[in-house]
Amino acid sequence: MNRRERMRSFFTVPVLLSVAFLLAVLLVSVFAEQLAPHDPDTLDPASVLAAPSAEHPLGTDPSGRDLLSRLIFGARSTMLSAFLVVLISAAAGIPLGMLAGYRRGILDKVLMRLCDAVLSFPSLLLAFVLVAAFGRGIGNVVLSLGILYVPMLAKLTRSLVLVESGKLYVEAAHATGFGGAHILLREILPNIFSTLLIQLMLDVGYAILDLSAMNFIGLGVQPPTADWGAMLQSARIHVKNAPLVALSPGILIVLTVVAFNILGDGISAYLDPAQRKLPSIKRFKKALLRRDPDADPGSKVLPRTRKAGEEAAHE
Amino acid sequence: MSALFEIRELSKYFKLGTRREEGGRNPLLLKAVDSVSFDVLAGECLGIVGESGSGKSTLGRLLLNMISPTSGQVLYDGQEISALKPESAAMKKLRGDMQMVFQNPRSSFNPKIPIVRSLHQVARLYGLSEEAAEARIRELFALTGLGQDILTHRNDELSGGQLQRLAIVRALIPGPRFLMADEAVSALDVSVRAQILELFRDMQQRLGLTVFFVSHDLSVVEYLCDRILVLYLGKILESAPADELFARPLHPYTRSLLAARPRAYPEEVREEAPLAGEIPGAVDLPPGCRFSSRCPEMVPGLCDFVEPADTEVSPGHKVACHLLRHCDKIEAGGAPEQKGCEECGASVGKEKVEI
Fold first, then answer.
1. Contact B100/A191, CB-based, under 8 Å?
2. pLDDT of A117-133, one tens digit each?
3. Hey, are the CB atoms on B100 and A175 less than 8 Å from each other?
């Protein structure tokens, strides 16, 4: 499988759409100050729950704040905290998992039983407990979720390291005279990195969901800070008379999570193109062409078999 | 010749679990290598043959102290390396002296690291500067008959033969005295195999290497090795200089192995039937001689009760078999008769009564 074929199997329509969407969200959250038409926290009691207008492109929320501006700043809060959660869990989980998988023995046993203990609780419930111990606030929520994401990542890393440790190249490195640090970081890590990356992508999605839940309950960001989860909470009672205000943060959460999932899928398709087949650009174009009856009148008769034949000829 | 490695009563048992028996729970042990003693002489090529499951690879790894033995010692240059932890700094320092080439060259290289880089990493590990590494790799490429352009290729574009040469280069970068080849030609095409064997012989002579060649292929060790050990279920059944072993195989196991070899003229009548059955597991060893369960010449009451001791039938030729104990013919240096020795069989029968 050469690089070009791999790239082709990576750049599929859903993956491209996801990448575009995530890039947009990322850019918006970086340049929130420049892009937002209003200050997200300025109250305007005169126009509460206003309909979309030139002044307020998406209308205003129950406190009269500009909805678009709040969504833009909410993107920043949501993305930043989700990335931080994943960063914390990766910084702890990957090294612990690698050590446990490579050294085995008592360290491995203790660490894995600890992970099992954490995993045996519903994660959000445990997050409540941790936040109750640390105190409210987005910082503590991020820290708690970061800690809770460690066990899964550590277990995954450990199992990947276990598989790699049994391979001949690791034994060869050992026989050559390399030490444990070199073998773990320079030999094994490059081989498990891509799988970990996929998991981290998925984790960002989960983190956004969990963070939104925590913020929805009010344990995380405190008013007036804009955040998608918190916005969902404050607008939820107005879903009948101002559906846009109530639904837009929820829709953004869903889209972002789905986009991260598809991106994770795309990466794994890049790594193992035989396994997954999302519609590629080429096939998409072909399908469009085929729908035009003038372009290919014969296609109406036997579209399926024809398509299969063409595919085979191309691949 | 002096001994580079001295192996003394070396054993490696793997614990598979525990088994409930009368008299309590006993550990379930796989005796991969069981009280083996021999020397590896400096500058020789020592071959070790045996079926799969005979403990060849475990023995090789014990020699390099990649795994710690259950009991016994490995002395390298008089130093007891088996007392060092496999990962210890002192052992790492010695690894440059003793390198290894594996069976499957493709999987012995990291798939994610270009081979050039891994060769340079090895050079750096052994304290070579960037230029010195470059020069050393160039020199070894010339020695092993590899073109310099090979390093521009990706790992998966190289053939098995090229990769095995590169594996040999990697093993030679530290300038070892001892090279262990674990089935190093078994995964290669026959044509490539001959080239790599030639390369091993060439390297051994030119660099004065001591080679420990693990193989299941008798033809390969016959071609390459000065001395051969025949291993069966973790025990050495026969050891002899190569020409002696092939001219005068004494152990029934060695004889069946030789009989099982493919021949150039298959229509020739086989003198001895190749061995039937599979090698038994190393967990429940047959009592007495461990070959007794498959031996065509097994003497009931003796072979399946008493483990035979080594008999040195001629200088450097040791055999662990009851049948050779009292054979005058063999002690006089003659060849044994075809189906063992009639006289021996008789004397063995008498000995049985004494036991």
1. no
2. 999 998 888 999 999 99
3. yes
CA distance B219 to chain A (A): 26
Which DSSP string do the residues of B1-35 spell out, in sequence order?
--EEEEEEEEEEEEEEEEEEETTEEEEEEEEEEEE
Residue of chain A with shortest Cα separation from B172: A176
Q: With an 8 Å Cβ cutoff, are B102 and A187 in contact?
A: no
pTM as predicted: 0.79
Domain boundaries, chain A: 3-279, 281-315
**Closest to A283 (Cα-Cα) out of A5, A45, A13, A3:** A13
Q: Is B79 helix (H, G, I), strand (E, B) or coil?
A: strand
pLDDT the model gives residue B54: 87
Asked whether A98 and A187 are in contact (CB, 8 A), the reply is: no
**Rounded alpha-carbon distances, angstroms, from residue B78 to B81, B82, B150:** 9, 11, 40
Hunting for tokens 């994943």 — which residue is that? A86
What is the Cα–Cα distance from B163 to B154, expressed in whole angstroms?
Answer: 11
A225-265 pLDDT per residue, tens:
888 888 888 888 888 888 888 889 999 999 999 999 998 88
What tokens were used for A252?
Answer: 């953004």
What's the topology of domain A3-279? MetI-like fold (1.10.3720)
Q: Of A145, A1, A35, A126, which is closest to residue A86 (Cα–Cα)? A: A145
Burial B180-205 (b: 16+ CB within 10 A, else e): bbbbbbebbeeebbebbbebbeebbe
CB contact under 8 A, A186 and B121: yes
A176 touches B108 (CB < 8 A): no
For strands B317-319 and B311-314, give the pairing.
antiparallel
- Do B174 and A177 count as a contact with CB atoms less than 8 A apart? yes
Q: Is B186 on the interface with A (CB under 8 A)?
A: no
Q: Is residue B236 within 8 angstroms of chain A, CB to CB?
A: no
User: How many Cβ atoms sit within 10 Å of the Cβ of residue A187?
Assistant: 23
Mutation choice for B interface testing from A168, A185, A189, A196 by most B CBs within 10 A: A168
- Please count the other Cβ atoms lying within 10 Å of the Cβ belonging to residue A193: 13
Nearest CA in chain B to A169: B108
Taking the C-alpha atoms of residue A189 and residue B172, their distance in angstroms, rounded to an integer, is 26
Write down the domain spans for chain B. Answer: 286-355
Tokens of B310: 């080594």
Q: In what order do the strands lie in the sheet with B79-80?
A: B24-41, B3-21, B71-76, B79-80
